[in-house]
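FIELD: query
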Amino acid sequence: MTALPPALRPWATQLSLFPNDLALQLGAQVARLSAALGGLRPRGEAEGGEPQGYDGLTRRGTFERLLVSEWLWALEAPEELVRRAAFGELSFLKPAFRQPRGALRTVVLLDAGPDQLGLPRIAHLALLVVLARRAEAAGAAFTWGALQSDPLRGPHTGLDGNSLLKWLEARSVEPVASHHLTAWREALALQQAPGDVWLVGAPRLARLDGAEGMSRVEVTEPMEPGAHRLTVDVRPAARVARSVVLELPSPDDCVRLLRNPLGQSLSGQAVVRQEKRLLGFAFSGDGRRLLLHYTDGSVAAMAVPHSPRATLPKPRRLLVPSGMRVVAAGWRSSGGLLVLARTGDEYVMHGQVKMPDGLRKGRYHAQVEAERPDPPAGALPLRLMSWVDSKGQEQLWMRDRREQLFSLPPPRAAGTVPLLPLEPHVSAMAEVRNTPVCVMRPPPPDGRGLALVARLAVLGEEEPRVAPLNARQGDAFFGYSPSGAHPEAGLLAVRHSADTWRLFLDTGMVEVLVPTQQRVVGVVQPPAPSPAGMLTLGPDLRTFSFLSQHAPQILTVAGDDVVQAEASHGQPVFGWLTKSGELVLWDLMEKTVLYRALPGTMP
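FIELD: result
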């Protein structure tokens, strides 16, 4: 959505569900409610859990944490040191702690009964937008539902068009009662620690059995002739209550928000939009963008956030015309998306290729039918890697499922150019330090008993430079390393045997043992003093571990079985996609969730 003013852009993803005019009307309510609710504080960052260094200064603490500058009083004026200690004026380092955040979630339960029918539901709608974005910014799961509905049918996860339409149909003539809340507490396991749970409705919700310890939002309509506003009291469980008055849109817009907020065609029953699902993802050739592939054939390029609270720009998206099939996709830092699609026997590039004399549309054909690079039906598209040489000519490569490396020659002004197969057994390719490189598996035995090893090739030259890598099998991963990496390949890991990986660094080569039941998904160099190591997924398909020459470490545990996982070689981030459709990005330096998108909330 491009029509939103800057003040509403933090909620751009959620407000994009609505038509532009309704999004602007609802956005005014969203901004006011967001200020009243405040942010979701990540659990465990202030006290308890695993130590993670220091976070500012405090007036209390042990003398082991006393600032070095304070010890000068002991030398220069001991009496002043005693006085400052007695009056609490000394400064100490404040320790910081971290706890796993995988279980952090926000739960919202809304009263859909007669107390809240009509205009109060507009406040409910705005609150859902605010709380969904609030949970997303803190890397928390977002779960919500109507109190009068059956929790066994499953709550809603995330905010999308389908769930909003079901919420519209969840109106009930039955007032909310304690047994409704009890059923939801049991279904969502809220008995012991309610956490960030919000009850939304009339003030009478506070009298329900089991509401103790829960935050509440009380929505009331003033009993005044001609009043067209709502009073919303925000009562967090552990903070001071705040009151907000919401001036409502025009009566016609209120009717649209209550009956058809998504702007869909309604005939007797609400029409549910066909929802595209995320097929998979891939990091771009330089590791700086996330390419998202959807079941409807569209491709989007998303910036990787630099912090869990970063506001992301809307992803660049491209949907090829009907009848075309996406074969490969890539991203260029100065040029945007490149998507190669097949139509008949021809391949067409969506996105113009850079030439020394300007830009040109690319069209290609396969020289041999058996050598077409097309991925199998239902599989992810291939990865395009782009690089501009010193003459201003953009060069393109892609690797198919058979590990055949193809070059896409410069396009012609008219007609097509052939896709050129280069190396037949390329296990990995990437752009490292503005240089395109790839790893080639050992060539087949030549019968002379020579020990054959993998090779590193530098692309983009008339004759690719090739250097041997002392590893026998050739499975390879390029990884992120702030320092100490190979001068040309960056951080590179190549499989030597079934359970041995060799890491190539600037100081030489080190070996890391990886049990055969662990699936390698990348290689990374964490902050010093930790050495470089392998990122793996356990046999349970949920546990991610870091294996190096030191003791193994468990990094995080996914909430569901992982169907795809990949690490970036351009930044310390890896991502995974679960069976339920949840996409998560994890920061390897801060060891925290960087981004989470639930099914139905994909950008």
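FIELD: remark
The longest strand covers residues 50-58.
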